[in-house]
Amino acid sequence: RYFTKENRVPSHAYRASSLTKVLADAFIRNTSSRLAVVCTASPCATDTEHTIATLRMGMTLGGHGSEREEKQMVADLVEKKPRLTHPKNWTPEQVFDWLESVNDGRFRDIADTLPRNFTGQMLVRLAENRCVQLCGGNDRRGRSFFSAIHQEMQRVEASRKG
Questions:
Q1: Is residue 4 pLDDT above 60, yes or no?
Q2: pLDDT tens digits, 116-162
Q3: What is the pLDDT of residue 150?
Q4: Helix (H) and strand (E) counts for the chain?
Q5: pLDDT for the residue 30
Q6: Does residue 56 contact residue 67 with C-beta atoms inside 8 Å?
Q7: pTM above threshold 0.70
Q8: What is d(CA 145, CA 134) in angstroms, rounded to the nearest whole number?
Q9: How far is the CA of 8 from the CAs of 13, 23, 34, 56, 88, in angstroms?
Q10: Within 10 Å of residue 153's Cβ, how many Cβ atoms?
Q11: Residue 142, Cα to own-chain centre: how many angstroms?
Q12: DSSP 74-117
């Protein structure tokens, strides 16, 4: 920037290294010389300031004094999967839809015994013995229903973790 305004590079623009000082005259643009600039950047977040300073110096030496900053959020680059709703947040319609589809509709008849305003929060609070009651006293089927509820909760929680 200073070079484009004053047609010279100030001494403080050069790094304190002896090589940079020796080559300082070559950095000043004239028609008889060519300049190649190699900048090394660190991938560490702790070196961000040094990396930015190095790149700015490289741009200045390369004759591109004006810098332009472009930002892009990393979250925009990541493909977003639709987030599954946890059973405790289900509406009554979602509860009844799940009962129709889980285990190939094996628990479809339970929907008839539940009130129409039965929410997901009520579903996840069902104890195993209440599931047995809802299954007409069939112990094995009741435990299977209780297990299906908890498997659905674990499936949603696993999808959120990974």
A1: no
A2: 999 999 999 999 999 999 999 999 999 999 999 999 999 998 888 86
A3: 95
A4: 10, 0
A5: 61
A6: yes
A7: no
A8: 9
A9: 11, 14, 16, 17, 69
A10: 15
A11: 40
A12: HHHHSPPPPPPPPGGG--HHHHHHHHHHGGGGTTTTHHHHS-TT
Quick count: other Cβ atoms within 10 Å of Cβ 142? 21
Number of residues in the chain: 162
Residue found under tokens 């304190």: 16
Per-residue tokens: 133: 């009651």
Q: What is the DSSP string of the chain?
A: -HHHHHSS--GGGS-S-HHHHHTHHHHS--TT------------GGGHHHHHHHHHHHHHHTT--S-------HHHHSPPPPPPPPGGG--HHHHHHHHHHGGGGTTTTHHHHS-TT--HHHHHT--HHHHHHHTTT-HHHHHHHHHHHHHHHHHHHHHHH-
Pull the structure tokens for residue 49: 């300031």
